[in-house]
Amino acid sequence: MCIWARFRGFILLLTFFIYTCYHMSRKPISVVKSRLHQNCSELIKPTNDSHSINDTTWCDWAPFDRNNYKELLGAVDNAFLVAYAIGMFISGIFGERLPLRYYLSAGMLLSGLFTSLFGLGYFWNIHMLWYFVLIQICNGLVQTTGWPSVVTCVGNWFGKGKRGLIMGIWNSHTSVGNILGSLIAGVWVNEQWGLSFVVPGIITAAMGILTFLFLIEYPEDVDCTPPQHHTSGGLEENQDPEDLGNSPKESSLESAARGSKEPSAQPAAISFLGALRIPGVVEFSLCLLFAKLVSYTFLYWLPLYIFNVAHFSAKEAGDLSTLFDVGGIIGGIMAGLISDYTNGRATTCCVMLILAAPMMFLYNSVGQKGITNSVVMLIICGALVNGPYALITTAVSADLGTHQSLKGNAKALSTVTAIIDGTGSIGAALGPLLAGLISPTGWNNVFYMLISADILACLLLCRLVYKEILAWKSFLNRDRGSSLALTHPR
């Protein structure tokens, strides 16, 4: 007898920790940036330092001691993000065809290795740009194993009912990982900054071993009945299998679950073009491109912005930047809850994106005038920026990957997730790159770029928002008609 709720809770918790580690290992670079190039005139030169007296970059880490250090740091960021974006489109295809447990475990072990190798550059006294770029490219490729796999695994265990709320809470792993990565990196950033990478790398690799030992990919693997993703023959789409014990359909469901274990019953994996034809995939993918552009620019450049504009120390800037991720947790849960209640995923995203634009403008204008302003506005901006991003990458991806047009072929989930997040990752690569190129002209211009991207993300959802409004009107008209029929029977 399957203990459904216990297994499902365990999978939710395990995948939460898995992706927390993935994001934790990405965050240190944003904190360490301010240490790689800083204002050396404010520091006391050690007595045993070999640099000349007039050297104003003695405290910087070559090759980031040059005047174009922002472009070089942007190149390091972009190496990871471009590799991640390219690899994501391929990763979903592999994720459908390989056992998720092996795929995730290998990805986490390799990610831990490459994250640690970046930090070991400090202890090995490496000052070659190509080394850091190469490590970032390799890390970007192996990190693509994470997202399609964890979303597919959670989608295998959860039906559509309350998916937005559940995945909104679950998706806080992104922000929790960013917070942990910032705090861990902050411990060593002013001393041995290499440990800011080595420690998260070791934790990620250790989590990979636990994943190999304990991850359960499918409910059928432990004799549980899979969830119902869509209404079929009167069965509620969010009904848990444990509630089917007294149902006359129990025997047919059990036989279906047993049959799904047989090789002959496995559906064929969906093609890339077939996934693109699913209604809503293209719109949400393009929307995520611009939403993720905004989110990842904050992820990689916010600590440096606070360091330069508010003049905090590197550790204080890293710690303060975590408030953006705290807001992201709140925003993800709010977006999931509202979209479940209204059944309007696109409308929820659109409204939050509309509100995010003026809030980013206000944060840049008055956010650094006092610690209270900074704290409040960082949390609000984090909620409004990361809410739509979280909703699209979780509940929307799972909805589209189990869309009724697929006729129950759950093999599409990994590919759809990879397409949506892969397209979003193009924006994630563009955002930090553009920030590195634009920031020398002034931080105001960076924020104008972010606001423009936010507005474009909103516009791309207009067609889907219109369809949701028509659906609400149709539902209200039917509801009104039913009420009239009850009050005025013939």
Plain-language structure description:
With 490 residues, this protein is an all-alpha fold. 72% of the residues lie in helices and 0% in strands. It has helices at residues 4-26, 28-36, 69-97, 100-123, 129-143, 146-157, 163-170, 173-188, 195-214, 250-261, 272-276, 281-309, 314-342, 345-366, 371-401, 412-438, 443-459, 462-487. α4 packs antiparallel against α5, α12 (281-309) runs parallel beside α16 and α13 crosses α15 (371-401). The longest helix has 31 residues, at 371-401. It is globular. It starts with a helix and ends with a helix.
Q: Low-confidence segments, ≥5 residues, pLDDT <50?
A: 231-265
What series of H and E elements makes up the topology? Answer: HHHHHHHHHHHHHHHHHH
Helix content: over 70%
Structural class: mainly alpha
Approximately what portion of the residues adopt beta-strand conformation?
under 5%
- Compute the number of helices: 18
The pLDDT mean sits at 81
Shape: globular
**Major β-sheet profile:** none
Number of strands: 0
- C-alpha-based Rg, rounded: 24 Å
**What is the CA-CA span between the terminal residues?**
51 Å
